[in-house]
Amino acid sequence: MTAALEMTRLGYACTLLEARGSAGGRVLTLRAGDVVNEVDSSQSCQFDFDEDLYFNAGPSRIAQHHESLLGYCREFGVKLEAFTNDNRGAWLHSPGAFDGQPQVARRLLADTRGGIAELLSTAINQDALDQALTEADKANILAMLRQFGDLDINNSYSGTPRAGFPGQENVGGRQRGELLPARRLQDLVTEFFWELRLSFSQGFDQQPVMLQPAGGMDRIARAFESRVVDDIVFEAEVTEVRKTADGTRVIYEDRSGTSSTLEADYCIVTIPAPVLAGIANDFSAAHQAEIAGFQYSSAVRVAFQAPRFWEREHNIYGGITWTDQDITQIWYPNHGFQRETGILVGAYIFDGAAGNRFTDMPPATRIDTTTAQASNVHPQIRDQASNGISVAWKKMPFQRGGWGMSNPSVLLTADDSIVFAGEHLSILPGWQEGAILSAYSAIDQIVDRDRGA
Amino acid sequence: MTAALEMTRLGYACTLLEARGSAGGRVLTLRAGDVVNEVDSSQSCQFDFDEDLYFNAGPSRIAQHHESLLGYCREFGVKLEAFTNDNRGAWLHSPGAFDGQPQVARRLLADTRGGIAELLSTAINQDALDQALTEADKANILAMLRQFGDLDINNSYSGTPRAGFPGQENVGGRQRGELLPARRLQDLVTEFFWELRLSFSQGFDQQPVMLQPAGGMDRIARAFESRVVDDIVFEAEVTEVRKTADGTRVIYEDRSGTSSTLEADYCIVTIPAPVLAGIANDFSAAHQAEIAGFQYSSAVRVAFQAPRFWEREHNIYGGITWTDQDITQIWYPNHGFQRETGILVGAYIFDGAAGNRFTDMPPATRIDTTTAQASNVHPQIRDQASNGISVAWKKMPFQRGGWGMSNPSVLLTADDSIVFAGEHLSILPGWQEGAILSAYSAIDQIVDRDRGA
Question: What one-character DSSP code corresponds to residue B404?
Fold first, then answer.
């Protein structure tokens, strides 16, 4: 849709062939009554009808520097609100650590910073780093480390209010007497799991502030769609992409199986590689080979409707809890705070063996498995979560994968008059910003060629 | 209002004497047409009329574990949204560092973590910490530090995507080739200023997720007020607080100077100490002495209306920029993203010499000074910011200070039938949650006495 919108603005006549009844690809926001048809199953979304009860099964967050996407939000008037990755009140859980008791993020983070700062202070005070540091450097760094780790005046770490207070790690703080005992760094790092998760929100594309459209991620796709809708042929499943003497020819079928043909000077192919690999084409052998070998993530998401026990009982307002079980992440809604119910993402599995295991399950088994694992973190889920629904992207028709995980090469260049685009061909795979940047690149290839020819 | 609400629920008949025309104390949200009358000046708020154009001149954020306050928000139906302290796209600025060029937080944070992790790795690899760490500890910690600082496989830090990309530290990332050069920790810490600010959002009460009421902080105070309004006497300026044989007597004046008298079994005094010190009373010498000596912050805030250049030109969506000038902080609005204009807090000064300097200025001088200093960070402010307004809490009638900065002692105990309450007498001075907890404590004192008597 980005390519069509911008090429139309440049004076090109565009036609979009969309296999489904609405455009937006993997942007999928599920609400009451929506149907999820995977290749071998069908689910109906049973959430209550309510504007806050939606489930972003695909992209769910926007980095504040994804300025192309955000520029369209501004232009289209899509209302934005904050999305949280790093909630210090959310939890980390590993069945094998701390007797399986979830740990509040603030405590693990505070102890990690404290331990690192104390150890480095010890080394500096033992003159172990005198080759690298002057006396002035050492004094400056020791002072900095006291702030960094909340150390005492002797640069020792013996706990900090940053961790919360005993018995109140997660439920407020009416009493603030003694500190929680400091955990030694060497004991924390036996669970390497923790630090991996604690560093997640340091990533350039995951740092605060993250944003989300109010009302669901598909607000952006719908805004795009409304601007190019006259050029879209819906329920047009492409069956062939051909080269002609002076351009391209695409054959597509409507729902009844009736074929149509579209000829054009150029064709921008944004079909995900796993789907494209099964479509008859005239691509070069090198393009075909890269398409055939392109790997995609096995992303799976499972969501429930539930009363907001995480807010009422645990003071968790948005953000992500991590668990070292297959379900990987639990997401709390970042909107509709303090309403009676909300949509809880009970599992967000990115890829790998766990993703494949969940993809292979029938939807009911995914729900049961998620309920069982998520209940190890929040026992309330067993009785209170309902209306579960799941999306396994490798089983979604016309998508057949979460996002591209191969490094593109040949597909970044045109194949005669055929140009390729999509998140998988961008520097930001898996992000809507990536899909837009890739569209810009496809446009550049066509415009440059028309200017140069 | 908390005490009145809860004591009424317990069966007590309560009367609130409120010096102003509306209740809420230092909860002050300014909108178009509002007037700020300090003791020696008057300002009128010139913002455009718009629901998103408001300025919280007092409390502005709520920690997600401030569960008493949040409980009232839930009960009252006050809609909440996220508030950001830690925006990695916001800036840090010191006139004396980096030629006065603001630095994007993400880069300073990434280099700080990288430098700490590399130095500690070096010390560990030189066996400097072998007294404290086993070989297994060392291997675990080295692996953790690679994640923590984004080090290479040799535990060296040579830059990271977490810092942003050259020329694109703050404006997105269409090109992601080479990394920004890594800055050495010993060079960063010559500006101790940085780390102080970088650790701010680690604090228990400042960690993510922070919350704010949609539409302005006074939504909470207004909700309280509507529930106790029948018991409030507005524009009732207390002139005397007396003890009687079996209770208390309060004398107050209305706007015309007419005196009234109220007798009650108990009196809960929530008047800020600097104001209370000037009211005739029968308090014990110890209570009087603590009131007379109670120190308050010299908090000052200055706000402007401005087109949202911070979003459009710098991809900053909410959060705080720090500067080592008197103005201390610049706050970007955490709501109304991508609207044409917003309210920018151009200065938030907590206390100390800078707070006193700004308090002593006439409002127009505060605006000019803030414009000059804030323009060193964002030059756009000079031409684009307008409709400036300021609040210096030490000059606000009936308040005369930001928040309590002394440790309470005698005031935590009743003086016969007179009980004291307020944020300054809580474990959370400066926070609305603290005022509520203090009210609970005052209620406990009265109820315990009635039960025990």
Answer: B
Task: Report the C-alpha gap between A242 and A250 in whole angstroms.
Answer: 6
Interface test with A, best of B188, B189, B197 (most A CBs within 10 A): B189
State the burial class of residue A334 (Cβ atoms within 10 Å of its Cβ: 0-12, 13-18, 19+).
buried
Q: Which of B118, B171, B206, B207 to mutate to test the interface with A (most CBs of A within 10 A)?
A: B207
A191 touches chain B (CB under 8 A): no
Burial class of residue A174, CB neighbours in 10 A (0-12, 13-18, 19+): middle
Cα B94 to chain centroid distance, Å, stands at: 22
Contact list, B197 vs chain A (CB under 8 Å): none
CA distance A78 to A302: 26
Mean pLDDT, chain B, rounded, equals 95
- Check A170 against B65: CB less than 8 A apart: yes
Calpha distance B25→B450 (Å, rounded): 28
pLDDT level of residue B175 (50, 70, 90 thresholds): low
CB burial class (10 A; 0-12, 13-18, 19+) of residue A256? exposed
Residue of B116, B122, B312 with shortest CB distance to A148:
B116
- Maximum alpha-carbon separation in chain A: 81
CATH class for domain A2-27+217-296+403-452? alpha beta
Best of A338, A339, A340, A444 to disrupt the B interface (most B CBs within 10 Å) is A338
Measure the CA–CA gap between B150 and B147, rounded to whole angstroms: 5
Alpha-carbon gap, residue A241 to A257, rounded angstroms: 17
Q: Where in chain A is the domain with CATH 1.20.1440.240?
A: 105-190
Q: Retrieve residue A412's tokens.
A: 């970044």
Average of pLDDT values for B86-115?
94
The 3-state DSSP class for residue B7 equals helix
Q: pLDDT tens digit string along A124-147?
A: 999 999 999 999 999 999 999 999
Rg of chain A in Å (alpha carbons) = 25
Domain with CATH 3.50.50.60 in chain B: 2-27+217-296+403-452
Q: Is A132 on the interface with B (CB under 8 A)?
A: yes
In the stretch 202-261 of chain B, residues with CB closer than 8 A to chain A read 202-204, 207-209, 211
How far apart CA A50 and CA A309 sit, in angstroms, is: 19
The pTM score is 0.96
Query: Which CATH architecture describes the domain B105-190?
Result: Up-down Bundle (1.20)
